[in-house]
């Protein structure tokens, strides 16, 4: 004899688990245990559903005996994880001519016709798999019901099944098989389901929300799903079933709590409303979650059909986790684990409201998160003019250079045709907390005509209103609805909890006092990278930097350095004051020349004026300085070796600033970092000179101070020779932007052009400037760390490339025993949370 697949009535003690019967069956059992008025329910296990899909007869008759005589039942899917979906619910199984007749006399013809028609439609489409168009009847009526029954007979050559056991058998089989379909499989695997993910099913006695008295159905939840604040929300619809209230929202919807806009369930059925509020409180406390309860009122009697976790925004996720922990319902550790680190960026910046419409015109790389609305401008001058008029703007450039800094400051967002995750626009925008989309190579930029041609030929002109969504990497036409950032006390409290668990440091990459202030506000534990050349991006300062770069001889250079010294000293004093004794790691100049030379004739002319030199001198010098490959040219420490007075000036400014803030009671031990090192001798030479500057400052001021000297590991050779280099370095900080560039031989500024083709064809799993390449660059990190620590066991190790804020890189660095990670100030909260997750 064939054994029937098993089924279990859900009782408080039945053996039901999410791993054997699915999350819904388990959740319903919890509701039953909590004494909620759940209609009788039977659970079919994963193995039962599997054998039904394989052709075993479903135990329909046996299941039906678990209910009252002649029940109407529903079937709902119950996979192990609610995110994995499942076939749609089927309602009203058991309806037939006889039941229809009884219903007509007990509930009236209208109700009986509507229910039977709905069941025939659902059965025809989902179980018999007939053409949905043939059963698409809008208004229920006796005639519509007859037509549907006739259509069923014609299409199947059989009368509509009348035996409830047959209906149930077929419905169970169709749902079990639907789960095995290719599309369903692909959809759930995209959401992380394993290949062998199984389905459970729950069969539940229907509560009829149609008929006499107060009858209807609805959903209720006790928090606002967008803000996470306590609020009764949901919908109730009289004379409806299942999730009708959600599907047919507009007409006939009744508010739940009292509402001036119309009638409410609270007034209509005060006892049921009070009971629902009570059930909500019980669910929150005992299920340790904010639940959405699906309910039906059957002639005034409340039935709870189901409860699911409230679907919520990231900001609501954090609010709810904090509230649950504060009410001692969950621990702080669990609260911390309930928020995904990446979700935090939604709280830090304005976002496009996901509920609104999206008219996407341009797509590119999502280089800096957040969203902003503004009018299109095609030059930095136009951006500044727009800001002066008090009008928000989105700056569009082929790519940006230091000359655009003013324009970027003035803009609400930046869109570039070229570039990748670590190009100038991306790095600066992340630092400023501006939304930025780069590498939008599918648009054609016509800066002269001040317009851009989007794919498909759509033209956007200067002054057109757009929304730049840096989180999604898209530009949208018009002003989208926005959500404001959510940096409130709960946010700070939550991250404070995260800090109490994490075991790797988090610093910020901060170049200016404004950056440092953001870093402090986000509780960074210091500055891990201050790119000193970035302190000269502002145009009134850029000129002094250029004067130094353009100096023909030592005398000219000395005069430029004399101007730079007090500026640098003031900069460092500011940083030290803001960081109030926290460590500050200052990187000596690393100006890739192409970022600092003027590119246009206009720029050359301005420079000639500022330096009081003939234009021909400037163009000649610019030609002499120009390099074929500036990223591999006279950068970083090479400048320090060839023109030592530049680093000496910086060291002097750092030490004098240290003494200045020391006199005001702020004790600082500055960290000085040498960029782009590839040989130990470079470090030796620079160290000797900086030691000499320190000695000179000490002698002159007769005050003692200490400092640490470290090296940025940005070239593969520096990683390989870290053992030698560590002899002269107290710390090594891995600059994974350049290290990625040099390991792959990929240009940081040009790779955006082909990166999507590479990723789409699976050459690289991800853009390596975005996600640390663990296999290649990561190996260099491990080699560098091991060799460095072999020489100097107390060597401090860190990462300061843009990868420093990625959860995956943080996990890698933590495992390798790094002391801290350093990332853009706006990514510090994410890094703090990601690090806490790793430690829990
Ligand atoms: C790096 O190369 O990783 C780095 C942090 O330096 P920059 O981005 O300034 O070259
Ligand atoms: Mg670098």
UniProtKB/TrEMBL annotation:
Its cofactor is Mg(2+). It holds the Pfam family PEP-utilizers_C. The keyword Magnesium applies. Its EC number is 2.7.9.1. GO terms for molecular function: ATP binding; kinase activity; metal ion binding; pyruvate, phosphate dikinase activity. Keywords: Kinase, Magnesium, Metal-binding, Pyruvate, Transferase. InterPro entries: ATP_grasp_subdomain_1, PEP-util_enz_mobile_dom, PEP_util_AS, PEP_util_C, Phosphohistidine_dom_sf, Pyruvate_phosphate_dikinase, Pyrv/PenolPyrv_kinase-like_dom, Pyrv_kinase-like_dom_sf. Substrate binds at residues 531, 587, 714, 735-738. Coiled coil: none annotated. It comes from the Bacteria. The active site is at residues 424, 800. Mg(2+) binds at residues 714, 738. Belongs to the PEP-utilizing enzyme family. Catalyzes the reversible phosphorylation of pyruvate and phosphate. This is Pyruvate, phosphate dikinase. It comes from Gemmobacter megaterium. The lineage of its organism: Bacteria, Pseudomonadati, Pseudomonadota, Alphaproteobacteria, Rhodobacterales.
